[in-house]
Structure to design on (167 residues):
């Protein structure tokens, strides 16, 4: 089975030459360290989409990330003698690392990850697993609605008010 090649983004621009440049000549997994633990298939799929440029834009990438994390949470089961809040955060770490290796995280993705980790960590130890998973799903939906969609709408309204005819 062949490893997909990364798209070549052309010549280096001096303004951003200090940033990592992707190249078609490098295999996607050439410099990638695959974690020992199993990576959820949805995370692998998302990582490939990020690296190939299929999902572009900070908001689109963040929304896709939140959607995948909802899937990961749905499929998650707490191991015996473990606490969901601790184990799930540890389970997400290699996923985040994998995605970062595929393509660096945007600021909004980093904020969403911090928020989600905080929400998971603040779950009470006495909460039932199904209730906790449901609560996390709702929290992700609320975050997406408030921090991405409503924020974009507010920015658009503000910009619209500032633009005048003839500008």
């Amino acid at each position: 089975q062949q490893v997909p090649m990364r798209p070549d983004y052309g010549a280096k621009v001096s303004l951003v030459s200090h940033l990592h440049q992707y190249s078609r000549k490098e295999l996607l997994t050439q410099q990638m360290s695959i974690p020992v633990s199993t990576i959820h298939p949805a995370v692998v799929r998302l990582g490939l989409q990020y690296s190939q440029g299929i999902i572009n834009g900070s908001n689109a990438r963040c929304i896709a990330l939140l959607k995948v994390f909802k899937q990961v949470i749905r499929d998650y089961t707490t191991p015996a003698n473990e606490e969901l809040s601790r184990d799930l955060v540890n389970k997400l770490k290699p996923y985040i690392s994998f995605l970062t290796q595929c393509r660096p995280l945007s600021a909004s993705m980093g904020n969403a990850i911090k928020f989600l980790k905080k929400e998971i960590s603040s779950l009470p130890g006495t909460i039932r697993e199904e209730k906790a998973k449901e609560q996390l799903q709702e929290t992700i939906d609320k975050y997406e609605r408030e921090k991405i969609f409503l924020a974009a709408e507010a920015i658009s309204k503000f910009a619209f008010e500032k633009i005048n005819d003839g500008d």
